[in-house]
Every structure is written in C-alpha cells, then in structure tokens.
Amino acid sequence: MQMLFGSSVGKKIAMAATGLILVLFVIVHLIGNTSIFAGPDGINAYAAALHSMGPIVWLFRLVMLAVFLLHIWLGLKLTLENKLARPVGYAQKQNIRTSYAAQIMIYSGLVLLLFTIYHLLHFTVRVTNPEISHFVDAAGRLDVYAMVVLSFQKFFITLTYVIAMVFLLLHLSHGIGSMFQSSGLNNARTLPTIQAAGKWIAIVLLVGYIAIPISIFVGIVKL
Fold first, then answer.
1. Known SUPFAM superfamilies for this protein (predicted)?
2. What is the pTM (predicted TM-score) of this model?
C-alpha cells in the first residue's frame, strides 16, 4: 500500500485504475437508466431486480463510493504535490497542449462529488423529495418511473442534472485520455487517437444522460 501511494507515479497509476472503474460504472449506469424509455414496467422491473439482490447491491454501492472517494483524494494529493513542487509561480505561464477541461479537472471532480451526494439523497436514500419517492406500481414494486418523471418535471431538478452532466463531459473528455497517459499505455503516435476517443465517449455519455431529464421535462416521457 505504501509503495502504491507513496510516490507520484504510484498515485497516478492508482488514479488511472480508479478512474477506469468509475468510467465503466458510468457506462453501465447509463445503460440501466435508459430502461425508462421502455415505460414504467421497464425501469420498475430493472429497479426491482437490483433490490432483489439485497445486501449485494449495497455492498457494491459502498465499494463504488470508496473508489470514488479514493479517486478524488488522489486527485487532491497530486494537485497539492504539483503546487508544492513549484511554490513560486511562473513569471509568465504558457499552457502548452492543454485544454479548459484539463485546467479545471480538480474543480469538475469536486462538483461531481457534490452532485453524487445529491443524487444518492434524491433517488437512492429518497429524502430530498419524500412526497414522490414512495409510490408503488400495480405489481407492488417501487414506482421508480413515477418518481423519476415527477422529479424531472421540475425545472430546477432538471437543470441541476443537466449542469452536472456538462461537468461530467468536461471531466471525462480529459480524464479518459489522461488515464492512458498516467498508466504509460500511450505514446506520441497514439495520443491524438486516445484523446479523440475520450472526447467522443464523453459526448455520447452526456447525450445519453441528459436525454432522460430533458425528454421528461419537454413531455416526451410522461406518466
């Protein structure tokens, strides 16, 4: 453990590994969420299948939360180490081969942490909107479809999710390429392809995630 987190190289490799796990989770989570387009039975059956797994689901959630927190801690540590390595700022700083997404990585990560906390309180713990969070459908299952639709019919909630997904786009558009760079799995020849792939994956995830709240808000998906 000391060897893994004791050096900047070890932290970067661990951050790449936790980042990969989180990207895969984001993809799988989106696939599950799109079941809402199959109607009430689609997403309610999906949610019931997850709940039927009992403690395994909560164990998985705790592991993913731990991975997420570790990823953020590593990012903060590396950012602080970089600042301490140069306590005196550049007389004239020039950002070479960087982007806005790269410059705000630590901030977009913190925004996503705050959003994750809100998201868990909203749809998992169900404490932010209790008046719409405990409906049951005709089959006796938790009516997730009604909860989601009634939530995203509200402008503020929809706006919150869309803004958060924009930050996810910014974070992943740089983070996916950075994963390979930190792991030493790229070179000057493959770097442009990896960076382009990262941006396209981030765009697809953005479109997929915001399609749900926007479709509900404009009335395409409704009760």
1. Fumarate reductase respiratory complex transmembrane subunits
2. 0.85
